[in-house]
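I am hoping you can look over what I have pasted underneath with an eye to the fold:
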Amino acid sequence: MPPHTERIVSPYDVEARYGRKRETEWCGYKTHLTETCDADLPRLITHVETTNAALPDRHALPAIHEDLAAHDRLPACHLVDSGYVDAGELVAAQAEYAGGAVNGPDSATEITPVSYTHLTLPTIYSV
C-alpha cells in the first residue's frame, strides 16, 4: 500500500489526499492564506496557496515567499502559526528574502486562537 501522501482517496479527483490537523480530518486539499495585519489598515488577503492536504504546512512556506516576493508583497515580518515553524525554513527565508523575518510560536509559547466566525467561505470541493 502506498504511503498516505501518495494514496488516492477519491475516484473523482486523483490529486486529492487525506489530511488531518489536530482533530479535523478531510479528503482534498489544504489552503494557505496570507493576509496583512497592520493595526491601522484593513486586513487584506495578499496570497492564496493550495497544496496537497497531506503536505506539512512548513513545506508551503518557500512557494508562498517566492510568490509574495515576485509580486512585491513580501512583508517585513511574516507571522506564521506553529505548523510553519521549522528552523531550516525560517533561516532560509530570512537569508533569501533580504532580511524579511519569519516569526512563529515555539513549543513554549501559548497561542490564543483567532476566531473567524464572521468569515464565510463557499464550499468549493468536498468528497
About this structure: DSSP finds two helices and five strands in the chain.
